[in-house]
Amino acid sequence: MKYCINCLQPDTRPNTRFTEAGVCPACNYFKELQNIDWQERYEILEDLIKKFPRRKGSYFDCIIGVSGGKDSTRQALFVRDKLGVKPLLVCLSYPPQQVTARGVDNISSLIELGFDVVLSAPAPQTWQRLMKASFDKFTNWAKSTELALFSSVPQIAIRYKIPLILWGENPGLQLGDLKTLGRTGFDGNNLRYMNTLAGGGLDWVLEVGLNYRDLFSYKYPGPDEFDAAALQIVYLGWFLGDWSLVNNASYSCANGLEIREDTVHNTGDLRGVTALDEDWVTLNQMIKYYKFGFGRVTDYVNEEIRLGRMSRADGILLIEKYDDACGDEYIESFCSYMDIPVLKFWEKVRSSVNKELFTVEADGSIRRKFTVGVGL
After folding, report:
1. Which of 104, 117, 241, 360 has a 20 to 30 Å separation from 257 between CA atoms?
2. At what angle do helices 296-306 and 25-33 cross, to 10 degrees?
3. What per-residue string of b and e applies to 314-342 under the rule 16 or more CB within 10 Å gives b?
């Protein structure tokens, strides 16, 4: 395990690759941004939009996937109010046990701001069974739900015959998931190869007694379907020089975004502005930490370090303190929904700990072997 020499990105992030000098892809990209002509990029975006004229009989120019969070709220407002383009917003709806009141309120705020929103709501019984199967098989309850989350947008685009999909962040450039890189910095059609979707086949689902006709909501359209519908995903973040976690949150809060109020000790959410539509993501971030050696706080501080607003030393202190943060109430709520004892949850988590990075002690506590900022 090694760390980027600039930020606190470890080389354990899936699909990442450091330069010979030891710089992570995200820092490499950030350095390149300092020489960008952003007016030129804005003009490229305007020209690109013109290549996708509204189809006859359609009421919309493009589709944007939204959760009601900081990124999707900013995208929707920018596209409509700055570009003068009419988007159809697509939101995957979680079951009542999972969605937060703030998530519902934030989607309602988007509707009140004048947007048309289509909700995609997979069958709740199937959703629950797949979540449990995902946790049992991969110790990642979100493997199935993220398939539905990412699949809903191109599925609706095909159904409504709207070929242009506007996405926010380029995971290849801004996070370092290099398999997603497309023909250009804004081409998102290789999103299907990101770590979340890679190996997105549904054969494993058959083990829980479901069949393919139950799984439409979880099927990301294949390349042939993209080509037949002439779909194009475009990353908006590539065109915006001030695209960042904090900036997007500030912009969206000024337009009614409701943020998380719980403490960093319980959530690992330094600003209270990520994944606002549900709270079980906190568990997934903790488990990600035990698998790969980094969690939500690492992502936060890396951006702050690159922007010059935080020192590497201060970032290390925050990661050491909060990167595995997860309040007991979130674990208990998840276990209640999964109908499993909390003890079984922890047995599963401990069995999936990366033994190269962590030691599971006799009392069940998990101790890291690596030094944050240094590695192994």
Report:
1. 241
2. 30
3. ebbebbeebbbbbbeebbebbbebbebee
The Cα 15–Cα 196 span in angstroms is: 11
Q: Residue 177: its pLDDT value, please?
A: 74
CATH class of the 38-239 domain in this structure: alpha beta
- Pair 100, 277: CB distance under 8 Å: yes
CA atoms of 167 and 90, how far apart (whole Å): 11
Q: Are 94 and 88 in contact (CB under 8 A)?
A: no
- Per-residue pLDDT tens over the stretch 124-154: 999 999 999 999 999 999 988 988 999 999 9
Nearest-10 Cα torsion for 188, 190, 191, 197: 170
Q: Which of 242, 229, 326, 233 is nearest to 287 (CA)?
A: 326
Q: Rounded CA gap, 226 and 188, in Å?
A: 12
62, β-bridge pairs: 87
- Using CA atoms, how far apart are residues 163 and 205, in angstroms rounded to an integer? 30
Residue-range domain boundaries for the chain? 38-239, 260-355
Cα–Cα dist 261/338, whole Å: 25
List 232's β-bridge partners, or say none.
164
Q: Are 59 and 39 in contact (CB under 8 A)?
A: no
Q: Is 270 within 8 Å of 246 (Cβ atoms)? A: no
What tokens does 57 get?
Answer: 């009989």
DSSP state of 177: -
Q: pLDDT (tens digit, 9 = 90+) per residue, 216-267? A: 899 999 999 999 999 999 999 999 988 888 899 999 999 999 999 999 999 9
Residues 6+ apart with CB under 8 A from 155: 120, 216, 217, 219, 221
- Enumerate the β-bridge partners of residue 233: 165
Tens-place pLDDT, residues 70-83: 999 999 999 999 99
Least confident of 34-43, 196-205, 361-370: 196-205
CA 360 – CA 256 distance, rounded (Å): 44
Secondary structure (DSSP) of 20-72: TTS--HHHHHHHHHTT--HHHHHHHHHHHHHTSPPPTT-S-SEEEE--SSHHH
